[in-house]
Amino acid sequence: MTELNPSWAGAAGEMISNAADLNRFFTALFRGRLLPPAQLRQMTTALSTEGNLPRQRYGLGLIEYETTCGVKVWGHSGGIHGSTTQAFGTSDGRHMITLNFNGDWVGGGKNVVSAEFCPPPGA
I want to staple 49 with a disulfide (CB 3.0 to 4.6 A). Which of 9, 23, 53, 79 is the partner? Predict the structure, then answer.
């Protein structure tokens, strides 16, 4: 057993939640139930990450991610040793996905997000 105090990572290690909670949060946010429209617009005014994060732009606490098929989704991702989380959805809050990997070595989180929002070939 390894002992790790996640407080060194700030919010990355201190949030206690699950995928269903994150889906509810982002759905409520994008459907306008948490903030006035002007504040949500500010959060979704995204700027380029200048090539550091492929197919991503960053707003105020939100990531705009362009999937491999060109669909733009909003949310956030993060991780700490041994855990990675991705939570993304459509800007209207109708379609969300949150995934947790118990391992930061598996990678591929954005590939799963793209698979969720991109139609299968020939569909």
Answer: 53
